[in-house]
């Protein structure tokens, strides 16, 4: 009988340990850092498919979307801090509930427009300077097996996929790479959009391969994003794998480990 009681006590202690560990992990994920795996090419070449990072959830304060499944029991934002233009931000899509990662381009009150593939903010052209080409192998990428879009296409499997790269300098001095293929797509020429109070305008650095604030939510885009949907700021790539699984060590990218996100 004593042996059974001791065994039962061991099981209870194990369950308690597991529960405590889950609670601690949940609190850590909710209040401090959330893991995020890059699934698409919308932020190339700043972020590559297979980059793994932790999102700083303390950067902008907290809303109900800071919690998994949006279960935080409050409305609006608490301990709020304003994001800065040029931040790379993870946010919750208002319609489909997915987590997106894009660069913050427009602040409340800004006017945003694309003209022939060039960004204009508040009536001023945002300067770009040529920065060579971005090259990668034309092959399925990541768990979803996405194929990159190439400026020099069509490119056969195993060929070199190229895209023009530019350095864009935002009005606050933030400099970052952008990739561009053409200047005639829908997202390359837009009407003037005014960012409403309490909202933000986001774009992907891979300008011809990003569903972002240039497109309305009605057509699957992000539209003007209310502040409550912000989750956090991406500051550094922790780990990166070019393969379909992070376990495929031969596809790891050592040069991207702990790489700062600019």
Folded structure, characterized:
With 262 residues, the protein is mainly beta. The chain folds into two domains: 1-31; 34-260, Umud Fragment, subunit A (Ribbon), CATH 2.10.109.10. It contains one helix and 15 strands, in the order αβββββββββββββββ. The model has no long low-confidence stretch (mean pLDDT 87).
List the helices and strands and how they pair.
Layout: H1 2-31, E1 33-37, E2 51-56, E3 88-92, E4 99-106, E5 111-115, E6 118-121, E7 124-125, E8 128-137, E9 160-169, E10 175-180, E11 193-194, E12 199-203, E13 225-226, E14 230-240, E15 259-260
Count of discrete alpha- or pi-helical segments spanning 4 or more residues = 1
The CATH C-level class name of the largest domain? Mainly Beta
> What structural category do the secondary elements indicate?
mainly beta
What is the terminal separation in angstroms?
A: 64 Å
Question: CATH superfamily name of the largest domain?
Answer: Umud Fragment, subunit A
Q: Could you give a short account of the major beta sheet?
A: 8 strands, antiparallel
The helix content is 10-25%
Q: Which fold does the CATH topology of the largest domain refer to?
A: Umud Fragment, subunit A
Provide the gyration radius in Å. Answer: 21 Å
Order of helices and strands: HEEEEEEEEEEEEEEE
Mean pLDDT: 87
β-strand percent reads: 25-35%
The overall strand count is 15
Q: What is the overall silhouette?
A: globular
Named CATH architecture of the largest domain? Ribbon
Oligomer: single chain
Tell me the domain tally.
2
């Amino acid at each position: 009988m004593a042996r059974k009681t001791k065994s039962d006590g061991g099981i209870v202690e194990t369950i308690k340990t597991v529960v405590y560990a889950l609670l601690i992990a949940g609190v850590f994920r909710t209040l401090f850092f959330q893991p995020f795996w890059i699934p698409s090419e919308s932020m190339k070449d700043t972020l590559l498919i297979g980059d793994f990072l932790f999102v700083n959830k303390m950067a902008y304060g907290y809303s109900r979307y800071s919690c998994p499944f949006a279960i935080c029991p409050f409305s609006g934002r608490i301990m709020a801090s304003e994001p800065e233009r040029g931040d790379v931000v993870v946010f919750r899509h208002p319609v489909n509930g997915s987590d997106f990662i894009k660069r913050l381009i427009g602040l409340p009150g800004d006017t945003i427009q694309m003209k022939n593939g060039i960004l204009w903010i508040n009536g001023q052209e945002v300067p770009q300077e040529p920065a060579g080409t971005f090259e990668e192998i034309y092959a399925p990428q990541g768990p979803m097996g996405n194929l990159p879009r190439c400026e020099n296409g069509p490119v056969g499997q195993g060929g070199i996929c190229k895209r023009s790269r530019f350095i864009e300098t935002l009005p606050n001095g933030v400099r970052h790479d952008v990739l561009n293929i053409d200047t005639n797509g829908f997202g390359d020429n837009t009407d003037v959009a005014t960012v409403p109070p309490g909202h933000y305008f986001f774009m992907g650095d891979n300008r011809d391969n990003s569903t972002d604030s240039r497109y309305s939510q009605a057509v699957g885009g992000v539209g003007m994003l209310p502040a409550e949907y912000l989750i956090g700021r991406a500051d550094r790539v922790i780990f990166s794998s070019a393969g379909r699984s992070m376990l495929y060590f031969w596809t790891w990218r050592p040069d991207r480990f702990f790489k700062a996100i600019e």
